[in-house]
Amino acid sequence: MEPVINAHGLTHEYPDGTTAISEVSLTISEGERVAVVGANGSGKTTLQLALGGLIEPTAGSVDYFGETTDAEAVRERLGVLLQDPDDYLFNTTVREDIEYGPAQLGQSRETAARRVEALADDLGLNGLLDRPPFRLSGGEKQRAAVASVLAFDPDVLLLDEPFGAVDATYRERIQRRIVDHDGAVVLFTPSLDLVPAIADRVILVGQNGTIAADGAVREVVTDRSLLAEQGLRPPPTVRLFEGIAPDDEVPLTIAAARQSLLNGEF
What is the DSSP secondary structure assignment for residue 72, as one 8-state letter? Predict the structure, then answer.
């Protein structure tokens, strides 16, 4: 698989002297599902902004698609969802916000309309399309912001806590859309709970803003001592099956745990 993002020695220091990330190097390849996990304050959001070209790192660089270090030159290929949906919703109606990306890429109104309708169906936005974004609840804003990023079908999704204010029903719908996305997906989250259902790989950001681990999901989420050092807990099934199944056999998702129990494996 070809790299779509290649970061070299990223460091970012804020004006007050706080170093948010330090000498971070990583590669994201096409089609990968990666979760960037770390405790609150570890520098995940700063890393997302640097990878998305929304801040200039103090040191280091990012290559995009093996072509350029200029994020603006490939902006239409990067879908960056910020943690606060209000940062993403700025048009008069929800429909206009979702249509904005396709319109900027020169897609026809018919194509944009089809994408809007499909996303509205998937994410439960049908009754909200003609509302102004400021009239939405927190969860509705979150869903509208996710739809706006998905609408222009970017090659890379950089998603900061896309489930934050969303209830369980819509969380599953967003999860399915992320898993089904054709391009690379990088999920930034402080919790490992949904990671095994979405990601193939985990990058663990340590509390000092460096990479504490980078490996397969099972390898990272079953390393209880490593997670404890970073103020994190394993996913629910890993906690549930501790002492019942060895780490290389423990089910990582609720669906896998259910199937294992139905099969009488434990």
Answer: G
Lowest-confidence pick of 70-79, 83-92, 103-112: 103-112
Q: Are strands 201-205 and 59-64 parallel, antiparallel or unpaired?
A: unpaired
Q: Report the predicted TM-score, pTM, of the whole model to 2 decimal places.
A: 0.94
68: β partners: 64
Chain centroid to Cα 69, Å, comes to 21
CB of 175 closer than 8 Å to CB of 197: yes
Tokens standing for 154?
A: 């970017």
Helical (H) or strand (E) element with 58: none
Rounded to whole angstroms, the Cα distance separating 59 from 198 reads 31
Give me 56's structure tokens.
Answer: 């200039």
Domain residue ranges of the chain, discontinuous segments joined by +: 3-234
Q: What is the pLDDT of residues 150-168, one digit of tens each?
A: 999 999 999 999 988 888 8
In sequence order, the β-bridge partners of residue 185 are 33, 157
| Cα radius of gyration rounded to whole Å, the chain | 19
Give the Cα separation of 93 and 116 in Å (integer).
12
Rounded mean pLDDT, 102-110 = 83
Angle at 118 between CA 186 and CA 197, to 5 degrees: 35
In this structure, which topology does domain 3-234 adopt according to CATH?
Rossmann fold (3.40.50)
Phi then psi dihedrals of residue 64, to 5 deg = -115, 125
- Each residue's pLDDT tens digit, 45-57: 999 999 999 999 9
- Residue indicated by tokens 């220091």: 13
Q: Is 183 in contact with 31 (CB distance < 8 Å)?
A: yes
Residue 121 CB neighbours (<10 A): 11
